[in-house]
Amino acid sequence: SYVLGGRAMEIVNGDEELMAYMERALEMDSRHPILVDKYFEGKEVEVDAVCDGQDVLIPGVMEHIERAGVHSGDSIAVYPGLNLTSREVDTLVDYTIKMALSLNVKGLMNVQFVIMPGEKNEPSSIYVLEVNPRASRTIPFISKVTGIPMVRLATKIMLGINLRQQGHQAGLFRKQKLVGVKAPVFSMSKLIGVDTYLGPEMKSTGEVMGIDHSFEAAMVKALMAAGLMLPVQGNILFSIADKNKQEALPIIKGFYSAGYQLFATEGTANFIEDHKMKVTVIGKKLGQGSPNIIDMINHGSISGIVNTITGGRMALQDGFHIRRCAVERRIPCFTSLDTARVVLKAITQSKGLYNIKPVKEYLN
Q1: pLDDT, tens only, 303-321
Q2: Which entry of 16, 161, 264, 321 is 20 to 30 Å from 94 by CA?
Q3: Which residues 6+ apart lie within 8 Å of 303 measured at CB?
Q4: What is the pLDDT of residues 126-137, one digit of tens each?
Q5: 71 with 200: CB under 8 angstroms?
Q6: SS3 sequence, the chain?
Q7: Mean pLDDT, residues 309-337 taken together
Q8: What is the Cα–Cα distance from 130 to 114, expressed in whole angstroms?
Q9: Interhelix angle for 139-146 vs 150-158, to 10°?
Q10: Partners of 52 in beta bridges
Q11: Which residues contact 16 (CB under 8 A, 6 or more apart)?
Q12: What is the model's pTM?
């Protein structure tokens, strides 16, 4: 990948998917080498910092909802990192400061980390994914939720005024008594032929922010603003790859317990019935009779979709039509179980309660 946004980058599982990708890659460009790499599917964390060459100020640490493998621009980010231990936060701050000073940064810097859980009683391991000595797309977000004017500080540093002269101390800024959620916005309905499933290639065209005193309330605001909020009750469709079914089970049970009517493709429906839940089977193959999934979406019978990718060529093709139809009908479609999980939590635990205040009233 030699451009921003992970262009033409793809995650492959097994020989068949690798061969399919290689064929497409060679069709697009046979002049450049193809990079094959492994990655950790761990918890992704993002840190913005401003450095004057002597001191480093970190306004806060952001935790991504989606695990590594989804482009950071397409993931939901939460401030502060609610699921991070004090040891992990201390390590993230320590690494960020050391890198900023070693790189002699004078201005803004963004670091993306991945945290892998330790085996048995061992502590987690923290790895650096990438370091960018520049402003990032999270600068406006972290500036608003902490009250630290990152761009102004960095500009004055470049003009020779250090952090202490600007009245700021080094290290991690105090945690605010709020929760901020940054959610991506997609323009898929305006971009014909673009698939919507989340992966390492960035597809979002903007972002929204939700702030409140609790995670659930802030998440509801962000989802509403991004057009990803589900109604409190309705019909939800599941089409889950075999490799994801066990992980998806608590999410399916959660929607079922919340009163949603479950619809599913054949394999997923069998799995749901095996776990004693009522589900309606819908035909997935688009050329094999009616009503199929597309018919249900077009008729407005589906409120939301959870669709994970199997990787097979025909399955991807059918899935593409399903996801495109959902986009064009403005129906939320989640291809990451991590996203579906927090949407469920926001719906069931916020109870529709959230505050409406100016941003400044949330800050300490």
Answers
A1: 999 998 765 444 455 677 7
A2: 161
A3: 230, 231, 234, 235, 236, 260, 331, 332
A4: 999 999 999 999
A5: yes
A6: CCCCCCCCCCCCCCHHHHHHHHHHHHHHCCCCCCCCCCCCCCEEEEEEEEEECCCEEECCEEEECCCCCCCHHHCCEEECCCCCCHHHHHHHHHHHHHHHHHCCCEEEEEEEEEEECCCCCCCCEEEEEEEECCCCCCHHHHHHHHCCCHHHHHHHHHCCCCCCCCCCCCEECCCCCCEEEEEEECCHHHCCCCCCCCCCCCCCCEEEEEEECCHHHHHHHHHHHHCCCCCCCCEEEEECCHHHHHHHHHHHHHHHHCCCEEEECHHHHHHHHHCCCCEEECECCCCCCCCEHHHHHHCCCCCEEEECCCCCHHHHHHHHHHHHHHHHCCCCEECCHHHHHHHHHHHHHHCCCCCCCCHHHHCC
A7: 74
A8: 10
A9: 110
A10: 106
A11: 311, 312, 313
A12: 0.87
Residue 232 tokens, joined: 């409190």
Among 124, 136, 99, residue whose Cα is nearest residue 40: 124
Listed in sequence order, the residues at least 6 apart from 79 whose beta carbon sits closer than 8 Å to its beta carbon are 60, 61, 62, 63, 141, 142, 145, 146, 176, 179, 180, 182
Task: State the sign of the Cα–Cα–Cα–Cα dihedral 312, 314, 320, 325.
Answer: negative
